[in-house]
């Protein structure tokens, strides 16, 4: 799987940091500068879990990984604590955007089989996800996809596990991880060759098909057993028996209906129904009349109130005028200035001719009499309307009572009237409908016994083919296991990696032994054989363990490259290979291992991107032809800024 990382964009609360990568990238410096977080953020974008450092706990928002997969541009955006990534990618110059879950879910692209990030990365690389048996013990075990996360165990050597765990292959590892790690090596070594994978796929399809046929046959058989039916003849006989009952019931219903028609006369129920209908219309008419009269009462009451208010206002106006006539004005009531002399017969205030001669109460008395007369008329009208409403409501209540009596009598008569019909015709027709439904259901079931036998025959017919394919698979698998050419090659490459890295105690004539199924590499002394074995488990030095594990990862990548095995991603991240080694005291090992990295990047692993994270920096030789980037990182340094330049915590 051709993967190339271009850059990592880390979005923080106060800044956005860009980390660029090259063919070989080297990050080094003091602890606490965020070097390891770079590798973990890359792994986080590939669906890994992420343990936040104190700085990232406070500042981390999201991370964007820009990369290419099989020369197709891809961006993976994963926000903080997200269970999915947002993938932006281009294929054949077409741009797409997709939300991809980390773990399996529903298909994110219809009919593509892509259910999670692992499937999506295989899709981008143009590969079908490799499949392995779920159980390594049962030959008939179903197949499951090998995840990109399993492959990344051999592409990302985490600082925490580089000296404590050998790719989950050891006896102390989680059993599921140990089996998955072995599957990865089987694919790389070639034990899972195309013929094996093809036969496993065919066998899985055949077993699924047989299982589906047997399940369908069993379900149909249960349905038939519940109906007490065993064969086509049983159903046919049952249908004929029901048809005879159906004919008998049809004749019974016809006879009953004919008898009822002959004796049918005008019934009291019909008269009561007509009476009830007429009373209903009368009640409805009375409701309408009551509503109209109440509207008249409301209208007259409003007029009555308005006249009474006007009468009160006139009385108040007359009283005010009488009071003001007795006032002698010496000054203006508005501005309080002295009034000028006025001619006789004019108003002393405004100077106009006096128009208020006579008693101002004369007109108010006339208006008062008119208002009383109108109030009397409206009061009488309201009273009459209320009496009319009372009469109408009494009449309505009488009709309601009569209708209630009729309804009660009608219910009783209907019960008596329908009892005979309901107990005979309706009951018979119900039985008739039930029989017809049973006949229809049995006709649908009529072909089921034959269908059951057909399904069982088809399932049985698959058994010989499954047996034949299973035998063929055993032979092919045994042949693949016996073909140790690539396994021998891995042993040779691993020994070469140890020698070229100046691994302490390893000699040119030593032997490496890697045996299936555990694939744990042992180094044997050529002089005394297996009496002195060097393995990851018995290396007493943590420094030796990191180099030992790193050399094996390099050997696996070299084997995959030499055999043109495309399942392994072309990416290798080694976090702190000198974790437990002093660059000054063990200078030879330090320089030997880093020189090995540069040599492999330029030759055997040309095309594989390598990222090294460590305490000290060892530059590539002058003749190094691959692109190379290095970054020195120190906490609280402006010259060599850490991953989060502005962070001042500890």
UniProtKB/TrEMBL annotation:
Keyword Coiled coil (UniProt): yes
Domain of life: Bacteria
One matching Pfam family: AAA_23
Domain Rad50/SbcC-type AAA: residue ranges: 17-265
Matches recorded under Gene3D superfamilies: P-loop containing nucleotide triphosphate hydrolases (3.40.50.300)
Coiled coil region boundaries: 189-216, 375-409, 463-493
Protein name (Swiss-Prot/TrEMBL): Rad50/SbcC-type AAA domain-containing protein
Species in which this protein is naturally found: Marinomonas ostreistagni
